[in-house]
Amino acid sequence: MAKETMKAVGLYKYLNVEHSESLIDVEIEKPVPIGKDLLVKVKAISVNPVDTKVRAPKDKTEVPPRILGWDVAGVVEQTGPECTLFQPGDEVYYAGSITRPGGNSEFHLVDERIVGTKPSTLDFAQSAALPLTAITAWEALFDRLGVSHNKDVNAGKIILIIGAAGGVGSIAIQLAKYAGLTVIGTASRPTSIDWVKTMGADHVINHHNSFVPQLNALGLQHTDYILCLNSTEQHWQNMAEAIAPQGKICSIVETDHPLNLTLLKNKSVTFVWELMFTRSMFQTADMIEQHKLLNEVAQLIDSGTIRTTLAVRMEPIDATNLRKAHAMIEAGDTVGKVVLEHF
E strands of the chain, at which residues? Predict the structure, then answer.
């Protein structure tokens, strides 16, 4: 009996995005859910910097093809025998796991503990813009930096978000405002400055210039929290100068060279990393927290408290459009999220 197949976009070789074989249309076997897995019919996907980093040229080949994509909105097609949170027909959104095949396929397997119920007020494309960035921003703010969910506790506290116009920054601004923080975002181009203001930032400064003089010009000496979403090394000195004594810095961007942690010692500053794949990668005991936070984000969306960060919508989902989307991300000047829908 022939096995059922499905469309997908994948790679056999790791190539520059301009190469026609960097991402190609393929037919692969349709998977079957076991354990806690859901089989999701994919309706929309979005592209993140992690996609381009994974696809970047390297001396390695893949057989079968590697499927990328870590932002999905779709409909549950089938559930594994151990599933208790969802049933067929449920509309869901999620980011998935970096250690498993990605979601750039007609159907996709994902552990239900990292899946949320799709916001009811958004379509699939608007929803697909959110999971990876929302999980990253939520975990960075509330789990890593320890920001309180209580607005009264946060009254008068300030967060600086470096690279605020991107996907994570766009949602982090909104969540930080929801938590009652004063938000300073960094941006340097007119379009990105406007976007950061539209997302709700109280002030915008330029990350190409020294931070402290710009903070002083706003009547501020320092900032209680810093969330770095762009080149940790480039901004390290500026962050060390701008952070308040006993403040906290979180970054999501890996470094090529060691950082001088001694710069933080006199102020007793906390530095912490955020990677939203940690829970799924290591199957941590609290994996289900991503299910919970995605549901909370959906409620905030449906109540009008925060909004989708979709900026560019493309169709269909195919290799040509995914190569275009990767090129846009690699150019480094996108605001918000790039989303593809419909196979």
Answer: 5-14, 24-29, 37-47, 58-67, 72-79, 91-94, 107-111, 115-117, 158-162, 182-186, 203-205, 223-228, 243-251, 270-273, 310-314, 337-341
